[in-house]
Amino acid sequence: MPFVKDFEPVSLRDTNLFEPIKIGNTLLPHRVVMAPLTRMRATHPGNVPNKEWAAVYYGQRAQRPGTMIITEGTFISPQAGGYDNVPGIWSDEQVAEWKNIFRAIHDCRSYAWVQLWSLGWASFPDVLARDGLRYDCASDTVHINATLQEKANEVNNPEHSLTKDDIKQYVKDYIHTAKNSIAAGADGVEIHSANGYLLNQFLDPHSNKRTDEYGGTIENRARFTLEVVDALIEAIGPERVGLRLSPYGTFNSMSGGAEPDIVAQYAYVLGELEKRAKAGNRLAFVHLVEPRVTNPLLDEGEGEYYEGTNDFAYSIWKGPIIRAGNYSLHPEVVREQVKDPRTLIGYGRFFISNPDLVSRLEEGLPLNKYDRSTFYTMSAEGYTDYPTYNEAVELGWDKN
Ligand code: PHB
């Protein structure tokens, strides 16, 4: 693979990106965060993190001491899943491998945060049916798309609006896996309430048509996410919990900025977090997907939403904010945004192809291109074989 062409790297050494910041119980020496990245290398059956490659992959990306790594989305239960090659952290076998991964990260003096994930309507109804599991959602009167709706009907596993008892079980599973994460050595967890997955399906008025206390109003739509937040504050302490939101996202059939209630919805959630903070329970961070990326499957720079910003979050939530979305090729935007002393920057796709990304950002070095065709393949290729800058120069990548 060559370096990225038509990109003028700029050193960010003299910006706040390389100033320390406290996140939960950890003092980070810099603010480059590895964003959660689905890689589909876990083994089936059992959703076990890949025993051969995963610790190597994470260790490579943790090589710069003090890097905050948010893991790939990790299922809280079989019912929350449905992708065979995504890891979970509910079973002993999974936890044993996560211990190796956290050790590899900590050996570099970096930090590990586990992203806790439930799919809801973004799952595969046929895979769930194979395993005797429901196809869950906020409201079964709306569908993610015609293809999955038809598939669900074909395999006789139609969408299931969660009952209140189902919601209680999900909350228990978040607690169980948050405790497992900490017991296995993680520094904290991130609740995934973004990108159109289950918790986001409850937040969005397009996917949530409920008439009980989990739908119908801004407060009610936020209830499930806030119940998970409160349960994890209680279970592992607020300083070990972060929350990811994507106000403008349209991935997995979310409304995005076109919905007039959207900013109000997220302002409410952030206000509730700030109330908890004022009462002594400040979460470690809020992680926002920027309107720079409304659909993570699109190419770099595509699908940007120009009619809204996440700036409102700063007026409400007074703790640390990680901003993520197409920053690697835009150091000029990073330079501007990190002027705010509470801001960290999440880097995703270019952390896949640049294990030494932090040092490249600091020094203003060229970036390895990534190969999207190996993002989700069951191979070491495209996973543990991307070179550092010096290795890439030795390989002649700078001349390609
Ligand atoms: C994905 O697998 O494409 C994916 C997963 C989680 C996200 C976004 C995208 O939050």
UniProtKB/TrEMBL annotation:
<feature type="domain" description="NADH:flavin oxidoreductase/NADH oxidase N-terminal">
    <location>
        <begin position="16"/>
        <end position="368"/>
    </location>
</feature>
<keyword id="KW-0285">Flavoprotein</keyword>
<dbReference type="GO" id="GO:0006915">
    <property type="term" value="P:apoptotic process"/>
</dbReference>
<keyword id="KW-0288">FMN</keyword>
<dbReference type="InterPro" id="IPR013785">
    <property type="entry name" value="Aldolase_TIM"/>
</dbReference>
<protein>
    <recommendedName>
        <fullName>NADPH dehydrogenase</fullName>
        <ecNumber>1.6.99.1</ecNumber>
    </recommendedName>
</protein>
<dbReference type="InterPro" id="IPR045247">
    <property type="entry name" value="Oye-like"/>
</dbReference>
<dbReference type="GO" id="GO:0010181">
    <property type="term" value="F:FMN binding"/>
</dbReference>
<keyword id="KW-0560">Oxidoreductase</keyword>
<dbReference type="GO" id="GO:0003959">
    <property type="term" value="F:NADPH dehydrogenase activity"/>
</dbReference>
<comment type="similarity">
    <text>Belongs to the NADH:flavin oxidoreductase/NADH oxidase family.</text>
</comment>
<dbReference type="Pfam" id="PF00724">
    <property type="entry name" value="Oxidored_FMN"/>
</dbReference>
<dbReference type="InterPro" id="IPR001155">
    <property type="entry name" value="OxRdtase_FMN_N"/>
</dbReference>
